[in-house]
Amino acid sequence: MSCKAVLAPLSxxxxxxxxxxxxxxxxxLPSTDVQTEYGIGDPYFPELGNPxxxxxxxxxxxxxxxxxxxxxxxxxxxxVAMEDLSSFSLDFQGFEIDRLTVDGSEADYSRExxxxxxxxxxPLQAGDxxxxxxxxxxxxxxxxxxxxxxxxxxxxxxxxxINVLSEPDxxxxxxxxxxxxxxxxxxxxxxxxxxxxxxxxxxxxxxxESAGDKVRYIFEMNQPMxxxxxxxxxxxxxxxxxxxxxxxxxxxxxxxxxxPALTRNLDKLPEMIAYFSDLFGPYPFDAYGVLICDxxxxxxxxxxxxxxxxxxxxxxxxxxxxxEPVLAHELAHQWxxxxxxxxxxxxxxxxxxxxxxxxxLWESRGQTLESLTAWAETQKQVLIPDSKIGQPPPDExxxxxxxxxxxxxxxxxxxxxxxxxxxxxxxxxxxxYRYGNAGTEEFIAVAEEVSGQELxxxxxxxxxxxxxxxxxxx
Length: 474
Prior knowledge:
Layout: E1 2-3, E2 53-64, E3 71-81, E4 88-91, E5 96-102, E6 105-106, E7 108-112, E8 115-119, E9 129-138, E10 143-144, E11 151-156, E12 162-165, E13 185-194, E14 198-201, E15 204-211, E16 214-225, E17 232-235, E18 237-243, E19 249-255, H1 269-280, E20 287-288, E21 290-292, E22 305-307, E23 313-315, H2 324-332, E24 341-342, H3 348-364, H4 369-382, H5 400-417, H6 419-432, E25 437-438, H7 440-451, H8 456-463
Parallel strand pairs: 2-13, 19-20, 21-23, 24-25
Antiparallel strand pairs: 1-22, 2-3, 3-9, 4-8, 5-6, 5-9, 7-8, 10-11, 11-12, 13-16, 14-17, 15-16, 18-19, 22-23
Helix pairs in contact: 1-2, 2-3, 3-5, 4-5, 5-6, 6-7
Protein backbone atom coordinates (compact mmCIF):
# COMPACT_ATOMS: atom_id res chain seq x y z
CA MET A 1 0.00 0.00 0.00
CA SER A 2 1.12 3.54 -0.56
CA CYS A 3 -0.12 7.09 -0.22
CA LYS A 4 1.19 9.90 -2.36
CA ALA A 5 4.40 10.90 -0.59
CA VAL A 6 6.05 7.51 -0.21
CA LEU A 7 7.85 6.79 -3.44
CA ALA A 8 10.52 8.83 -5.18
CA PRO A 9 10.97 7.99 -8.88
CA LEU A 10 14.19 7.25 -10.72
CA SER A 11 14.80 7.35 -14.45
CA UNK A 12 13.56 4.36 -16.50
CA UNK A 13 16.03 2.34 -18.60
CA UNK A 14 16.34 -1.23 -19.91
CA UNK A 15 15.97 -4.45 -17.90
CA UNK A 16 18.52 -7.23 -17.32
CA UNK A 17 16.96 -10.65 -16.54
CA UNK A 18 17.99 -12.97 -13.69
CA UNK A 19 17.15 -16.73 -13.66
CA UNK A 20 13.93 -17.88 -11.92
CA UNK A 21 13.57 -20.51 -9.16
CA UNK A 22 10.74 -22.99 -8.68
CA UNK A 23 7.95 -22.56 -6.10
CA UNK A 24 7.83 -24.41 -2.77
CA UNK A 25 5.30 -25.32 -0.11
CA UNK A 26 5.16 -23.62 3.29
CA UNK A 27 4.29 -24.59 6.87
CA UNK A 28 0.81 -23.99 8.31
CA LEU A 29 -0.37 -21.24 10.64
CA PRO A 30 2.55 -20.12 12.88
CA SER A 31 2.11 -18.65 16.34
CA THR A 32 3.04 -15.28 17.85
CA ASP A 33 4.34 -14.33 21.26
CA VAL A 34 1.44 -12.30 22.69
CA GLN A 35 -1.94 -13.79 23.59
CA THR A 36 -5.27 -12.30 24.64
CA GLU A 37 -8.55 -14.09 25.35
CA TYR A 38 -9.43 -14.17 21.66
CA GLY A 39 -6.77 -12.26 19.68
CA ILE A 40 -4.28 -14.11 17.50
CA GLY A 41 -1.43 -12.48 19.42
CA ASP A 42 0.06 -9.77 17.21
CA PRO A 43 2.48 -7.87 19.48
CA TYR A 44 1.20 -4.53 18.18
CA PHE A 45 -2.50 -5.33 17.81
CA PRO A 46 -3.21 -8.40 19.99
CA GLU A 47 -6.97 -8.05 19.61
CA LEU A 48 -6.90 -8.92 15.89
CA GLY A 49 -7.74 -12.46 14.78
CA ASN A 50 -8.11 -15.67 16.78
CA PRO A 51 -5.51 -18.46 17.16
CA UNK A 52 -8.02 -21.20 18.06
CA UNK A 53 -8.86 -22.15 14.49
CA UNK A 54 -7.40 -22.03 10.99
CA UNK A 55 -9.78 -20.68 8.33
CA UNK A 56 -9.51 -22.69 5.12
CA UNK A 57 -12.01 -21.02 2.79
CA UNK A 58 -14.45 -18.09 2.74
CA UNK A 59 -17.56 -18.01 0.55
CA UNK A 60 -18.80 -14.42 0.56
CA UNK A 61 -22.19 -13.91 -1.04
CA UNK A 62 -23.33 -10.29 -1.27
CA UNK A 63 -26.39 -8.62 -2.79
CA UNK A 64 -25.53 -4.92 -3.11
CA UNK A 65 -28.10 -2.11 -3.19
CA UNK A 66 -26.11 0.76 -4.65
CA UNK A 67 -28.80 3.35 -3.98
CA UNK A 68 -29.18 2.72 -0.23
CA UNK A 69 -25.66 1.38 0.27
CA UNK A 70 -27.08 -1.67 2.06
CA UNK A 71 -25.81 -5.19 1.54
CA UNK A 72 -27.60 -8.47 2.24
CA UNK A 73 -24.93 -11.08 2.77
CA UNK A 74 -24.00 -14.57 3.82
CA UNK A 75 -20.42 -15.49 4.66
CA UNK A 76 -19.60 -19.19 4.98
CA UNK A 77 -16.29 -20.12 6.59
CA UNK A 78 -14.70 -23.56 6.43
CA UNK A 79 -12.16 -23.96 9.23
CA VAL A 80 -10.17 -26.41 11.34
CA ALA A 81 -10.01 -26.21 15.13
CA MET A 82 -6.39 -25.82 16.29
CA GLU A 83 -7.36 -26.56 19.92
CA ASP A 84 -10.42 -27.60 21.92
CA LEU A 85 -12.98 -24.79 21.58
CA SER A 86 -16.05 -24.19 23.68
CA SER A 87 -16.26 -20.79 21.99
CA PHE A 88 -14.31 -18.76 19.43
CA SER A 89 -14.46 -15.33 17.85
CA LEU A 90 -14.62 -13.69 14.46
CA ASP A 91 -13.68 -10.08 13.79
CA PHE A 92 -16.86 -8.36 12.64
CA GLN A 93 -18.07 -4.78 12.92
CA GLY A 94 -21.61 -3.46 12.44
CA PHE A 95 -24.55 -5.13 10.66
CA GLU A 96 -27.61 -6.92 11.97
CA ILE A 97 -27.12 -10.67 12.13
CA ASP A 98 -30.05 -12.63 10.69
CA ARG A 99 -28.78 -16.18 11.24
CA LEU A 100 -25.66 -17.85 12.61
CA THR A 101 -24.95 -21.58 12.44
CA VAL A 102 -22.04 -23.89 13.17
CA ASP A 103 -22.16 -27.11 11.13
CA GLY A 104 -25.75 -26.32 10.21
CA SER A 105 -27.02 -25.90 13.77
CA GLU A 106 -28.01 -22.60 15.33
CA ALA A 107 -25.26 -21.30 17.62
CA ASP A 108 -25.32 -18.80 20.45
CA TYR A 109 -23.37 -15.61 19.93
CA SER A 110 -22.60 -12.29 21.57
CA ARG A 111 -20.86 -9.13 20.40
CA GLU A 112 -18.15 -7.15 22.13
CA UNK A 113 -16.64 -4.20 20.25
CA UNK A 114 -15.23 -5.70 17.05
CA UNK A 115 -15.57 -9.32 18.28
CA UNK A 116 -18.35 -11.71 17.30
CA UNK A 117 -18.09 -14.41 19.99
CA UNK A 118 -19.65 -17.74 18.96
CA UNK A 119 -20.58 -20.65 21.23
CA UNK A 120 -21.48 -23.76 19.21
CA UNK A 121 -24.04 -26.20 20.59
CA UNK A 122 -21.39 -28.92 20.72
CA PRO A 123 -17.83 -27.91 21.71
CA LEU A 124 -15.20 -28.39 19.02
CA GLN A 125 -12.22 -30.67 19.50
CA ALA A 126 -8.73 -29.98 18.22
CA GLY A 127 -8.52 -31.16 14.62
CA ASP A 128 -12.26 -30.89 13.95
CA UNK A 129 -13.29 -29.48 10.60
CA UNK A 130 -16.27 -27.17 10.97
CA UNK A 131 -18.34 -24.67 9.00
CA UNK A 132 -19.65 -21.32 10.22
CA UNK A 133 -22.39 -19.51 8.31
CA UNK A 134 -23.30 -15.93 9.15
CA UNK A 135 -26.22 -14.21 7.39
CA UNK A 136 -26.40 -10.45 7.94
CA UNK A 137 -27.52 -7.15 6.45
CA UNK A 138 -26.88 -3.45 6.80
CA UNK A 139 -24.83 -0.55 5.48
CA UNK A 140 -21.07 -1.16 5.82
CA UNK A 141 -19.19 1.46 7.82
CA UNK A 142 -15.50 2.02 7.04
CA UNK A 143 -13.06 0.97 9.76
CA UNK A 144 -10.79 3.40 11.56
CA UNK A 145 -7.55 1.82 12.78
CA UNK A 146 -4.96 3.70 14.82
CA UNK A 147 -2.19 2.76 12.38
CA UNK A 148 -3.79 5.17 9.91
CA UNK A 149 -5.30 8.63 10.10
CA UNK A 150 -8.12 7.75 7.71
CA UNK A 151 -10.76 5.05 7.35
CA UNK A 152 -10.38 1.90 5.29
CA UNK A 153 -12.57 -1.02 4.30
CA UNK A 154 -15.83 -0.85 2.33
CA UNK A 155 -15.94 2.64 0.79
CA UNK A 156 -18.75 4.06 -1.36
CA UNK A 157 -18.22 7.26 -3.31
CA UNK A 158 -20.76 9.94 -4.11
CA UNK A 159 -21.13 8.35 -7.56
CA UNK A 160 -22.48 5.17 -5.79
CA UNK A 161 -19.40 3.20 -6.95
CA ILE A 162 -17.80 0.94 -4.34
CA ASN A 163 -14.16 0.19 -3.65
CA VAL A 164 -12.84 -2.06 -0.88
CA LEU A 165 -9.38 -1.24 0.49
CA SER A 166 -8.99 -3.10 3.78
CA GLU A 167 -5.36 -2.75 4.93
CA PRO A 168 -4.77 -3.25 7.78
CA ASP A 169 -8.05 -4.27 9.48
CA UNK A 170 -10.87 -3.08 7.24
CA UNK A 171 -11.93 -6.60 6.23
CA UNK A 172 -14.05 -6.94 9.37
CA UNK A 173 -16.08 -3.92 8.23
CA UNK A 174 -17.79 -6.00 5.51
CA UNK A 175 -17.51 -9.70 6.36
CA UNK A 176 -16.88 -11.85 9.48
CA UNK A 177 -13.26 -12.97 9.40
CA UNK A 178 -10.19 -14.11 11.28
CA UNK A 179 -8.66 -10.73 10.50
CA UNK A 180 -4.89 -11.17 10.67
CA UNK A 181 -2.40 -12.02 7.89
CA UNK A 182 -1.36 -15.18 9.79
CA UNK A 183 -4.61 -16.91 8.88
CA UNK A 184 -4.66 -16.97 5.10
CA UNK A 185 -7.41 -18.81 3.23
CA UNK A 186 -8.86 -19.34 -0.22
CA UNK A 187 -11.93 -17.33 -1.26
CA UNK A 188 -15.02 -17.44 -3.44
CA UNK A 189 -17.03 -14.27 -4.07
CA UNK A 190 -20.62 -14.29 -5.37
CA UNK A 191 -21.57 -10.63 -5.80
CA UNK A 192 -24.96 -9.50 -7.10
CA UNK A 193 -25.44 -5.95 -8.39
CA UNK A 194 -27.98 -4.10 -10.56
CA UNK A 195 -27.29 -4.11 -14.27
CA UNK A 196 -25.33 -2.51 -15.94
CA UNK A 197 -22.92 -2.15 -12.98
CA UNK A 198 -19.77 -4.31 -13.16
CA UNK A 199 -18.03 -6.19 -10.32
CA UNK A 200 -14.28 -6.67 -10.05
CA UNK A 201 -12.91 -8.85 -7.23
CA UNK A 202 -9.67 -10.48 -6.26
CA UNK A 203 -9.20 -13.80 -8.01
CA UNK A 204 -10.33 -15.24 -11.33
CA UNK A 205 -13.76 -14.52 -12.81
CA UNK A 206 -15.55 -17.86 -13.21
CA UNK A 207 -18.65 -16.40 -14.82
CA UNK A 208 -21.76 -14.24 -14.52
CA GLU A 209 -25.44 -15.11 -14.05
CA SER A 210 -28.21 -12.69 -15.05
CA ALA A 211 -31.54 -12.60 -13.25
CA GLY A 212 -33.94 -9.88 -14.35
CA ASP A 213 -32.37 -6.49 -13.76
CA LYS A 214 -29.53 -7.94 -11.68
CA VAL A 215 -26.33 -9.82 -12.45
CA ARG A 216 -24.22 -12.05 -10.22
CA TYR A 217 -20.44 -12.17 -10.64
CA ILE A 218 -18.52 -15.21 -9.38
CA PHE A 219 -14.80 -14.95 -8.59
CA GLU A 220 -12.42 -17.43 -6.96
CA MET A 221 -9.01 -16.94 -5.38
CA ASN A 222 -7.44 -20.40 -5.24
CA GLN A 223 -4.17 -19.33 -3.59
CA PRO A 224 -4.18 -18.49 0.15
CA MET A 225 -4.95 -14.81 0.73
CA UNK A 226 -4.61 -12.56 3.78
CA UNK A 227 -7.94 -11.01 4.77
CA UNK A 228 -6.92 -7.39 4.12
CA UNK A 229 -6.09 -8.29 0.51
CA UNK A 230 -9.63 -9.45 -0.30
CA UNK A 231 -11.46 -6.84 -2.36
CA UNK A 232 -14.79 -6.31 -4.10
CA UNK A 233 -15.31 -3.29 -6.37
CA UNK A 234 -18.39 -2.07 -8.23
CA UNK A 235 -18.43 0.59 -10.94
CA UNK A 236 -19.15 1.13 -14.63
CA UNK A 237 -15.89 -0.53 -15.68
CA UNK A 238 -14.39 -1.02 -19.09
CA UNK A 239 -12.50 -4.32 -18.91
CA UNK A 240 -9.18 -4.43 -20.76
CA UNK A 241 -7.92 -7.99 -21.17
CA UNK A 242 -4.67 -9.39 -22.55
CA UNK A 243 -2.28 -12.27 -22.03
CA UNK A 244 0.90 -11.60 -20.09
CA UNK A 245 4.14 -13.58 -19.84
CA UNK A 246 4.00 -17.28 -18.90
CA UNK A 247 0.24 -17.40 -19.39
CA UNK A 248 -0.62 -14.79 -16.74
CA UNK A 249 -4.02 -13.30 -17.53
CA UNK A 250 -3.97 -9.50 -17.39
CA UNK A 251 -7.27 -7.73 -16.77
CA UNK A 252 -7.51 -4.03 -16.01
CA UNK A 253 -10.76 -2.48 -14.77
CA UNK A 254 -11.10 1.16 -15.80
CA UNK A 255 -14.17 3.31 -14.97
CA UNK A 256 -15.77 4.46 -18.20
CA UNK A 257 -15.24 8.14 -17.33
CA UNK A 258 -11.45 7.91 -16.81
CA UNK A 259 -9.26 9.81 -19.28
CA PRO A 260 -7.47 7.17 -21.43
CA ALA A 261 -4.24 9.17 -21.17
CA LEU A 262 -4.19 8.43 -17.44
CA THR A 263 -3.84 4.68 -18.06
CA ARG A 264 -1.10 4.71 -20.69
CA ASN A 265 1.44 3.18 -18.27
CA LEU A 266 -0.69 0.05 -17.93
CA ASP A 267 0.84 -1.08 -21.22
CA LYS A 268 4.05 -1.67 -19.24
CA LEU A 269 2.50 -4.34 -17.00
CA PRO A 270 3.54 -7.36 -19.13
CA GLU A 271 7.13 -6.13 -19.19
CA MET A 272 7.05 -5.46 -15.46
CA ILE A 273 5.70 -8.94 -14.71
CA ALA A 274 8.41 -10.52 -16.87
CA TYR A 275 11.10 -8.38 -15.24
CA PHE A 276 10.11 -9.21 -11.66
CA SER A 277 9.55 -12.89 -12.53
CA ASP A 278 13.12 -13.02 -13.78
CA LEU A 279 14.40 -11.36 -10.61
CA PHE A 280 12.24 -13.04 -7.96
CA GLY A 281 10.75 -16.22 -9.40
CA PRO A 282 7.45 -17.01 -11.10
CA TYR A 283 4.54 -14.64 -10.69
CA PRO A 284 2.58 -16.31 -7.86
CA PHE A 285 -1.03 -16.01 -9.07
CA ASP A 286 -3.13 -16.88 -12.12
CA ALA A 287 -4.01 -13.31 -13.08
CA TYR A 288 -3.00 -9.73 -12.49
CA GLY A 289 -4.46 -6.36 -13.23
CA VAL A 290 -4.92 -2.79 -12.11
CA LEU A 291 -8.23 -1.31 -11.04
CA ILE A 292 -8.72 2.46 -11.06
CA CYS A 293 -10.94 3.35 -8.13
CA ASP A 294 -13.71 5.92 -8.07
CA UNK A 295 -12.35 9.45 -7.80
CA UNK A 296 -14.80 10.23 -4.99
CA UNK A 297 -13.42 7.40 -2.82
CA UNK A 298 -10.69 9.32 -1.03
CA UNK A 299 -9.46 7.65 2.18
CA UNK A 300 -6.09 9.46 2.12
CA UNK A 301 -6.06 13.13 3.03
CA UNK A 302 -4.86 14.12 -0.42
CA UNK A 303 -7.14 11.66 -2.22
CA UNK A 304 -4.27 9.47 -3.44
CA UNK A 305 -3.87 5.83 -2.52
CA UNK A 306 -2.88 2.48 -3.97
CA UNK A 307 -3.30 -0.98 -2.48
CA UNK A 308 -1.94 -4.35 -3.55
CA UNK A 309 -5.17 -6.37 -3.34
CA UNK A 310 -4.20 -9.92 -4.28
CA UNK A 311 -4.02 -10.24 -8.08
CA UNK A 312 -5.75 -6.86 -8.58
CA UNK A 313 -3.98 -3.70 -7.38
CA UNK A 314 -6.22 -0.70 -6.72
CA UNK A 315 -5.00 2.77 -7.71
CA UNK A 316 -6.65 6.14 -7.29
CA UNK A 317 -7.06 8.10 -10.54
CA UNK A 318 -4.16 10.53 -10.35
CA UNK A 319 -1.17 10.80 -12.66
CA UNK A 320 1.23 9.94 -9.86
CA UNK A 321 -0.70 6.94 -8.52
CA UNK A 322 -0.64 5.29 -11.95
CA UNK A 323 2.97 6.26 -12.64
CA GLU A 324 5.55 3.55 -13.36
CA PRO A 325 7.13 3.51 -9.88
CA VAL A 326 3.77 3.15 -8.12
CA LEU A 327 2.61 0.47 -10.58
CA ALA A 328 5.89 -1.38 -10.00
CA HIS A 329 5.57 -1.03 -6.22
CA GLU A 330 2.08 -2.57 -6.08
CA LEU A 331 2.95 -5.30 -8.58
CA ALA A 332 6.02 -6.28 -6.52
CA HIS A 333 3.74 -6.69 -3.51
CA GLN A 334 2.25 -9.73 -5.24
CA TRP A 335 5.50 -11.45 -4.29
CA UNK A 336 6.33 -9.47 -1.14
CA UNK A 337 3.26 -9.22 1.08
CA UNK A 338 0.70 -11.20 -0.91
CA UNK A 339 2.42 -14.51 -1.71
CA UNK A 340 4.70 -14.20 1.34
CA UNK A 341 2.69 -12.34 3.96
CA UNK A 342 3.74 -10.79 7.24
CA UNK A 343 3.72 -12.72 10.51
CA UNK A 344 3.13 -9.54 12.50
CA UNK A 345 2.40 -5.93 11.63
CA UNK A 346 5.64 -4.72 13.23
CA UNK A 347 7.47 -6.33 10.29
CA UNK A 348 5.78 -4.03 7.78
CA UNK A 349 9.21 -2.77 6.64
CA UNK A 350 9.67 -6.15 4.93
CA UNK A 351 6.77 -5.91 2.53
CA UNK A 352 6.88 -2.14 2.01
CA UNK A 353 10.66 -1.95 1.87
CA UNK A 354 10.95 -4.82 -0.62
CA UNK A 355 8.14 -3.39 -2.78
CA UNK A 356 9.73 0.06 -2.73
CA UNK A 357 13.12 -1.40 -3.59
CA UNK A 358 11.53 -3.33 -6.44
CA UNK A 359 10.29 0.00 -7.83
CA UNK A 360 13.84 1.32 -7.49
CA LEU A 361 15.08 -1.70 -9.46
CA TRP A 362 12.52 -1.14 -12.19
CA GLU A 363 13.27 2.55 -12.50
CA SER A 364 17.06 2.06 -12.47
CA ARG A 365 17.24 -1.02 -14.70
CA GLY A 366 20.16 -0.76 -17.08
CA GLN A 367 22.00 1.68 -14.80
CA THR A 368 25.01 0.75 -12.70
CA LEU A 369 24.85 -0.32 -9.09
CA GLU A 370 27.03 2.67 -8.27
CA SER A 371 24.50 5.11 -9.71
CA LEU A 372 21.67 3.53 -7.71
CA THR A 373 23.81 3.69 -4.57
CA ALA A 374 24.56 7.35 -5.18
CA TRP A 375 20.85 8.07 -5.60
CA ALA A 376 20.00 6.08 -2.46
CA GLU A 377 22.66 8.02 -0.58
CA THR A 378 21.03 11.33 -1.48
CA GLN A 379 17.68 9.99 -0.28
CA LYS A 380 19.27 8.78 2.93
CA GLN A 381 20.68 12.20 3.70
CA VAL A 382 17.28 13.84 3.29
CA LEU A 383 15.08 11.32 5.08
CA ILE A 384 16.05 11.28 8.74
CA PRO A 385 14.23 8.54 10.71
CA ASP A 386 11.79 9.49 13.43
CA SER A 387 11.69 5.87 14.60
CA LYS A 388 13.51 2.57 14.16
CA ILE A 389 12.81 1.00 10.77
CA GLY A 390 12.29 -2.44 12.32
CA GLN A 391 10.17 -1.13 15.18
CA PRO A 392 7.83 1.63 14.00
CA PRO A 393 5.25 2.96 16.48
CA PRO A 394 1.92 1.16 16.04
CA ASP A 395 0.28 4.42 14.93
CA GLU A 396 3.02 5.14 12.36
CA UNK A 397 3.24 1.89 10.42
CA UNK A 398 2.83 3.72 7.12
CA UNK A 399 5.43 6.45 7.55
CA UNK A 400 8.42 6.73 5.23
CA UNK A 401 10.60 4.52 7.46
CA UNK A 402 8.66 1.44 6.34
CA UNK A 403 8.94 2.39 2.65
CA UNK A 404 12.12 4.21 1.64
CA UNK A 405 13.76 3.31 4.95
CA UNK A 406 13.00 -0.37 4.39
CA UNK A 407 14.30 -0.10 0.81
CA UNK A 408 17.57 1.34 2.14
CA UNK A 409 17.96 -1.70 4.40
CA UNK A 410 17.47 -3.96 1.37
CA UNK A 411 19.98 -1.96 -0.69
CA UNK A 412 22.51 -2.09 2.15
CA UNK A 413 22.09 -5.89 2.24
CA UNK A 414 22.77 -6.03 -1.49
CA UNK A 415 25.98 -4.07 -1.01
CA UNK A 416 26.93 -6.25 1.96
CA UNK A 417 26.59 -9.64 0.25
CA UNK A 418 27.03 -8.86 -3.46
CA UNK A 419 24.56 -9.07 -6.35
CA UNK A 420 24.55 -12.80 -7.04
CA UNK A 421 24.03 -13.73 -3.39
CA UNK A 422 21.52 -10.92 -2.85
CA UNK A 423 19.11 -12.06 -5.55
CA UNK A 424 19.59 -15.68 -4.45
CA UNK A 425 18.50 -14.57 -0.94
CA UNK A 426 15.30 -13.01 -2.32
CA UNK A 427 14.46 -16.02 -4.49
CA UNK A 428 15.12 -18.46 -1.65
CA UNK A 429 12.97 -16.43 0.75
CA UNK A 430 10.09 -16.28 -1.72
CA UNK A 431 10.36 -19.94 -2.65
CA UNK A 432 10.56 -21.19 0.93
CA TYR A 433 7.60 -19.17 2.24
CA ARG A 434 5.48 -19.09 -0.92
CA TYR A 435 1.77 -18.75 -0.03
CA GLY A 436 2.66 -18.57 3.66
CA ASN A 437 4.02 -16.13 6.21
CA ALA A 438 7.45 -14.90 7.23
CA GLY A 439 8.83 -12.12 9.39
CA THR A 440 12.08 -10.31 10.06
CA GLU A 441 13.63 -13.29 11.85
CA GLU A 442 12.91 -15.62 8.92
CA PHE A 443 14.29 -13.12 6.42
CA ILE A 444 17.51 -12.70 8.40
CA ALA A 445 17.87 -16.48 8.74
CA VAL A 446 17.56 -16.93 4.97
CA ALA A 447 20.05 -14.11 4.34
CA GLU A 448 22.59 -15.71 6.68
CA GLU A 449 22.03 -19.20 5.26
CA VAL A 450 22.45 -18.16 1.63
CA SER A 451 25.29 -15.70 2.16
CA GLY A 452 27.22 -17.73 4.72
CA GLN A 453 27.65 -14.51 6.70
CA GLU A 454 26.68 -13.69 10.28
CA LEU A 455 24.37 -10.73 9.75
CA UNK A 456 22.77 -10.05 13.14
CA UNK A 457 24.95 -6.99 13.79
CA UNK A 458 24.28 -5.71 10.26
CA UNK A 459 20.49 -5.96 10.61
CA UNK A 460 20.54 -4.58 14.14
CA UNK A 461 22.38 -1.47 12.94
CA UNK A 462 19.88 -0.88 10.14
CA UNK A 463 16.61 -1.97 11.76
CA UNK A 464 16.89 -1.34 15.47
CA UNK A 465 19.03 1.77 15.88
CA UNK A 466 17.75 5.38 15.88
CA UNK A 467 20.32 6.53 13.28
CA UNK A 468 21.07 4.82 9.98
CA UNK A 469 24.65 3.62 9.43
CA UNK A 470 26.70 4.19 6.28
CA UNK A 471 26.06 1.99 3.29
CA UNK A 472 28.59 -0.86 3.02
CA UNK A 473 31.43 -0.15 0.61
CA UNK A 474 31.80 -2.26 -2.52
